[in-house]
Amino acid sequence: MKTSRRTLFATMLTLSTLTVAACGGGGSETPAADGKVTLTYALWDDRQQPAYQQCADAFQAKNPGISIKITQSGWDQYWTDLTAKLVAGDAPDVFTDHLSRYPELAANNQVMDIQPFVDKDKLDLSVYQKGLADLWVRDGKRYGLPKDWDTIAVVYNTEQVAKARIDPKEFATWTWNPTDGGDFEKAVAKLTVDGKGRNGLDPDFDKNDVKTYGLALETGGGAYGQGQWSHFAASDGFVFTDKNPFGSHYNYDDPKLAETINWYAGLIKKGYMPPYDQAGKLGVTPMMEAGKAAMVTTGSWTISSWGKDFAFAPLPVGPQGRKTMINGLADSIYAGTPHKDEAWKWVRFLGSAECQDLIAQNAVVFPAITTSADKALAAHKAAGRDVSAFVDEANDPQGTFLYPITDNAAKVEQLVLAAYESVMLGKADASTALPAVNTEVNNLFQ
Amino acid sequence: MAATILERPLRRRTARRAGPSWQRGHGRIALVFLAPALLGFAAFYLVPTVRGLWFSFTDYNLLSDPDVVGLDNYGEMLGDRVFWNALKVTGVYVVFNVATQTVLALGLAVLMERLTRSVMIRAMVLLPWLVPNVTIALLWMWLLDANVGFVNHVMEQIGLAKQGFLFSPDQSILTVASINTWRHVGYTALLLFAGMQLIPRHLYEAGRIDGAGEWRMFRQITLPLLRPVLALVLVVSLIGSFQIFDTVAVTTEGGPVNASRVIYYYIYEKAFTQFEFGYASAMSVFLILFLVALTLLQMRLLRASTSDLA
After folding, report:
1. Are strands A210-215 and A37-43 parallel, antiparallel or unpaired?
2. A28, HSE (Cβ side, Cα atoms, 13 Å)
3. Structural domains in chain A plus CATH codes
4. How many whole angstroms separate alpha carbon A294 and alpha carbon A188?
5. Model confidence band, residue B304 (pLDDT cutoffs 50, 70, 90)
6. Among A86, A290, A427, whose Cβ lies nearest the Cβ of B147?
7. ipTM confidence
8. What is the pLDDT of residue A246?
9. Which among B122, B145, B82, B107 is positioned nearest to B222, based on CA atoms?
10. Residue A201 C-alpha, separation from nearest chain B C-alpha, in angstroms
């Protein structure tokens, strides 16, 4: 009796310790029996995974000692997941990195400085789209190798544009200004149709019974408005920060930004754009697919999600010209990886023309290498899509401005989003809400 | 044989008075059976709580070592208007959610008790509770969408104006609360229904003989005798309700402006998107103390440990 009780106790104790151990496990790297090194590579865009799998296959064929395991999770989960894994010391060896996130990771020594490798291999960084590679350098340390870039353009429903008797050729030179919205607002108004078939320019237009909105509205985008308003503000002369990258002062109090945001929110009041609370979180695609909105400004990363009823046009020309935000992703190496050399080999391959040409063929994003980007353009053309609007904008030396890179990005986003939403909901005026939040934002940098 | 059987429980009973239970077989075997639960409790509750308490006195961004800052986080918390707003929003959520959920569940339980004993119906009532929270949140987000959602479509057909629901600043938190009421009402109803089984039938018979109607019997028999169960259900739903996170995380993400930024979501944002782990811990500590106080007060007010039946 006594022994059995003790055995029972021991068994239970062991069992429960095992359970606890099982929960905390999984952190250690176990080398495969054949001495093969397995690298984990993380990305967030499911549409790009097949292309990168091709890269991985090509890489593995050349480097039989290394195998690549790709993991993918959606944008929101990606960063939560990555943070948790960094804290646990179990992060992927190589991961897709974003300009708004890397300063924080670099400051906490989570990303490896690859400058020594670049120097050793004498890597030519001029093959990349101008300016992209240097975005990943801070204080002489390099934290990533460019993989792709994106710009913003207009996507429109071809049938609705034809029905509104607008010639899409006019889009090539259309204008915009914050006062009356220029040609752009006129097109938006013409494309807006109410329940009785009257368009937005009709004096009897009923803004409370809109069947099709001229411009779709994507929620969010408070601090940087990448797909929503950044191009309008910039073409009016607004500049986000004192310098970029690594500015330490935001200019959200600029009256030029306020007039742009007030104009943008004004489209809602006129009935040309859906009310902010009705724009929903499902994204603009379902609305456009359902024919409930005719046009929207969007990023080049969404190209492949638009069907054959849609076409692309360049952004309108503002008082200061045509401006698009250009943003680039890169591949970074986790500072704690036990396989530094192998990880660099993989990153170098990801940043090479060989891999980026494979990405180009899949026509999902524009690769960072200019010659590969041209191949992507050709692949899109072969698939029946004219995406030259995005590429022409990127190649215009005066036409792009970079995604603002600063510290405290997540906090800036939360603060500015609240202010921006209050304007879009009609509860505040941009000329008071934005200067107020600007003070709070700049306090973060004190 | 018969003697030993009788003798054993007797001996045990006297032994119980002899000394602290640790020193005898009972305590030890109890410990054996408690061990898995205790280990789990220590590993998943006690240790994290103590660590959290420690983090609340530090400046810690998860990736570098924590720096001790004393009470700074608590000071920052008192001056943080988003924090106070989050508490207010959570309060609105809890009151609306617990009130609607309990009233509806009580009604449902009475119907099940007085009208039908069908197991089918009991199972059906529980159905929404069996679906994962995230699925429910996604389901309702689609249903309530202003442009392609079914609910707004139906409302427009019968001539009502389109509503923003989750994304309207005035409706956001109430919509989240309603979604969770919908999910939990069946479960709560079953708990109350089970409680009603404890009420002796003869009281209803007596009531009927005395000429009481259903409403009178509900007020004067069911409700008073259900009080201990009702109190338990209220305490449990109140605490559960305070923990609202998933529906908000999946649908509104705290917006628009701060209309649905409930306290748990704010803590999560601070800890895992803005890396202010120390500050997030301070808010969590505050929340624990608040919930403990609230529970004690509630138990006291509802006299949950005594029954009128006794």
Report:
1. unpaired
2. 7
3. 37-149+328-382 (3.40.190.10), 152-327+389-443 (3.40.190.10)
4. 8
5. low
6. A290
7. 0.76
8. 87
9. B107
10. 23
